[in-house]
UniProtKB/TrEMBL annotation:
The keyword Protein transport does not apply. The gene is hflX. Residues 164-198 form a coiled coil. Keywords: Coiled coil, Cytoplasm, GTP-binding, Magnesium, Metal-binding, Nucleotide-binding. Pfam families: GTP-bdg_M, GTP-bdg_N, MMR_HSR1. Residues 205-370 form the Hflx-type G domain. It comes from the Bacteria. Residues 377-390 have a biased composition (Polar residues). It comes from Streptomyces fimbriatus. InterPro entries: G_HFLX_dom (IPR030394), GTP-bd (IPR006073), GTP-bd_M (IPR032305), GTPase_HflX (IPR016496), GTPase_HflX_N (IPR025121), GTPase_HflX_N_sf (IPR042108), P-loop_NTPase (IPR027417). Its main location: cytoplasm. This is GTPase HflX. The keyword Ligase does not apply. It is found in: Cytoplasm. Residues 333-352, 365-390 are annotated as: Disordered.
């Protein structure tokens, strides 16, 4: 889709007296986010400082260094790990002569690329506009979109102009658009709520798959439900909830929902905009928390996901932890994770190992729900039967 390949320098900020690896990890993740967005990362620069300069983000020496690096590496984009204020973006762009975005802007851009359904698109646009509103400068050019040249909200933002009047008109336009989008999202959410209530009346228990982005949630849904959800080695492949009916080995029917993944410091604009999608987890009888057990960051990912669940009010939903990618995971790490989480089930959505254990654990947890859910309203899916007996 993108007409050009952006070349980016990543800009990290390391606190003094804090060891290096954490910073490298977060820049690795930033690089993966950039790759997901089709951006080539050509270099990295880390500033060691207690806190960023409130006006310019970088000190003057570091700013010069960044400008030279951008120049030498023929970069046209700088992606900052931290959150930048509108003034900091301006100061950096003026000092470096390249486009500057922060991590939130990058994530919003990825969401924009991956949104498929009209609900997903509306939610993403809402989040983008919430991000853009305080960053409007009263001049014509899109702000959160990095490359697409697509201007969120249509006319208004893209119009060249100057002065407070122009700015006020743009703000008003944005707010109006945001109101319309919120209403659209609300309508879809209401429809989903009706379906959910019908299922609840029929006592069909619901299981929501949740977890860090790229943990293998969609791959697991495909395994358990015989679905064909998009599985991709990119971050935030899935944005729209996908619901499937599944049967346990002994014939208990439940719904399994795949939704948007989480990431450290998920932009609050996205959490707000995606609240109705995240509601799928809040309303679930059980959260199937999928972890990429092969990641060196698995422990941190578990904590992040639980933190987001707390933030959206889903911490009361019982959790079944799934240690996925067992085929890749380092045995020592796997042993450590299992010791720390005795109730967890190790599986591989790729090879199928551990899936029978998972089906058994799911069944046990669903049986334990009260009031007792429906039994045998629908025969076990063929795939579950076939794999359950193999
Ligand atoms: N080796 C291995 N790879 C896996 C396993 N499960 C998933 N993957 C791979 O991990 C990547 C991400 O899988 P997805 O199912 O798309 O992950 P997700 O959690 O749905 O990701 P998002 O929707 O982007 O948040 C894909 O490349 C999968 O093929 C597994 O058990 N073992
Ligand atoms: Mg997915």
């Amino acid at each position: 889709m993108r007409s050009r390949q952006w070349r980016a320098v990543l800009l990290g900020l390391a606190e003094r007296n804090v060891s290096g690896p954490a910073e490298a990890d977060s820049l690795d993740e930033l690089e993966r986010l950039a790759a997901t967005d089709g951006i080539a990362v050509v270099d990295r620069l880390v500033q060691v400082r207690d806190r960023p300069d409130p006006a310019t983000y970088l000190g003057s020496g570091k700013l010069r260094e960044l400008a030279e690096l951008v120049d030498a590496r023929h970069a046209d984009l700088v992606i900052a790990e931290g959150e930048l204020t509108p003034a900091q973006v301006r100061a950096l762009e003026d000092g470096v002569g390249a486009r500057v975005v922060d991590r939130t802007g990058l994530i919003l851009d990825i969401f924009g690329e991956h949104a498929r359904s009209s609900e997903g698109k509306a939610q993403v646009e809402l989040a983008q506009l919430a991000y853009e509103l305080p960053r409007l400068r009263g001049q014509g050019r899109e702000l959160s979109r990095i490359g697409g040249g697509r201007v969120a909200g249509g006319a208004g933002i893209g119009v060249r102009g100057r002065g407070e009047m122009r700015l006020e008109i743009q703000r008003r336009h944005l707010r109006r658009r945001m109101r319309a989008l919120r209403e659209q999202v609300r309508r879809t959410a209401r429809r989903r709520e009706v379906t959910r209530q019908r299922r609840a009346r029929n006592r069909v228990p619901s299981v929501a798959i949740t977890g860090y982005t790229n943990a293998g949630k969609s791959a697991l849904l495909n395994r358990l439900a015989g679905a064909d959800a998009d599985v991709a080695d990119v971050l935030f492949a899935t944005l729209d909830p996908l619901v499937r009916q599944v049967g346990t080995p002994d014939g208990l029917t439940y719904t399994l929902t795949d939704t948007v993944g989480f990431v450290r410091r998920l932009p609050h604009q996205l959490v707000d905009a995606f609240r109705s999608t995240l509601e799928e987890v809040v309303q679930a009888d059980l959260a199937l928390h999928v972890v990429d057990a092969s990641s060196p960051e698995a422990v941190e990912h578990i904590a992040t996901v639980r933190g987001v669940l707390r933030d959206i009010g889903a911490d009361a939903v019982p959790e079944l932890l799934v240690l996925n990618k067992a085929d890749l995971a380092d045995p020592d790490r796997m042993t450590g994770l299992r010791r720390e989480h005795p109730g967890a089930v190790a599986v591989s959505a790729r090879t199928g190992e551990g899936l029978d254990d998972l089906r058994g654990a799911l069944q046990e947890r669903l049986r334990a729900l009260s009031p007792p859910p429906s039994v045998g309203t629908r025969p076990t899916t063929q795939r579950a039967q076939a794999e359950g007996t193999s």
